[in-house]
Design goal:
The chain is of the alpha/beta class. The chain is about 40% helix and about 35% strand. Strand 5 and strand 6 form a beta hairpin.
Length: about 180
Amino acid sequence: MTRLCRKLQMLALAWFIMIAYTFATDAALIEPHILIVDRSLPRPQVDSQVIAARRYDTFWNTGDEALARTALAPNFIDSTPPTGRPQGLAGPLAASKLVRAAIPDLSCEIEQMIVAGDRVVAHLHFRGHFTGHFGLMEGKGQTINFIATDIYRIVDGRIAENWHIEDNLTLQQQLGLIGERE
């Protein structure tokens, strides 16, 4: 019986630490500047969808892989991956490492977030400086400033599917990969 009590105490302590870590992590999530919510949705659904989106968007802000692992469903689908990006969790993790190798000080803000049905739309604003390496190119401190829009389908409080579009023309110009518009 004593052994069972010790195991239960250890499980309770582990559960408490996991819950405390989750809430501590969620407290540090980036907030949308504007949040628009379909008021016909139940509040618990809205809260879980907003938290999932904020976790994923904060992953882009910090590069903290634990946030992506928590935000994305095990069967996550990227419906608009660039050529060569793997599906599932591996895709965003690889993309984050590639971008952060080029732009170590990358930051992400949520300009606006819209919650409707099982979808969350996030309008994101990325900023930083190209001081690292992108392929064979070496940064010279160029300012990086571009936007992206993501549409997340949320299932059971996690992002099951994502459609995204980035302003790649602006990003590529700022990286020096293509010439500036005249």
